[in-house]
Amino acid sequence: MPIAVDIDVMLAKRKMSVGELAERVGITPANLAVLKNGRAKAVRFTTLAALCEVLECQPGDLLRWEAGDADTDA
């Protein structure tokens, strides 16, 4: 997938666990794991906003585009 998810980077910078982030954002740890491991097909803007609020970051700190790794599903 051409979109890479860097939630692990922000978790390390904030010294926060996946469980704590999931609880503070209001999603299950399993759903957060799907997102953070790059297996999610979509993310709601409300979830992205909550992640940014809790992690005190911008969406671009969590998501980035990687050239040359395009998905063939389109």
Number of H/I helices: 5
Q: What's the shape?
A: globular
The structural class is mainly alpha
Q: What is the CA–CA distance across the termini?
A: 11 Å
Strand tally is 2
Question: How do you describe this structure in short?
Answer:
The chain has helices at residues 7-14, 18-25, 29-36, 45-55, 59-62; strands at 3-5, 63-65. With 74 residues, it is mainly alpha-helical. Helix 2 packs across helix 3.
Write the layout of secondary structure elements.
Blueprint: E1 3-5, H1 7-14, H2 18-25, H3 29-36, H4 45-55, H5 59-62, E2 63-65
Antiparallel strand pairs: 1-2
List descriptors:
74 residues, mainly alpha, two-stranded antiparallel sheet
Would you mind describing this structure in some detail?
- The chain is mainly alpha-helical.
- The protein has helices at 7-14, 18-25, 29-36, 45-55, 59-62, and strands spanning 3-5, 63-65.
- It has a two-stranded antiparallel sheet with strand order 1-2.
- It is globular.
- The mean pLDDT is 91.
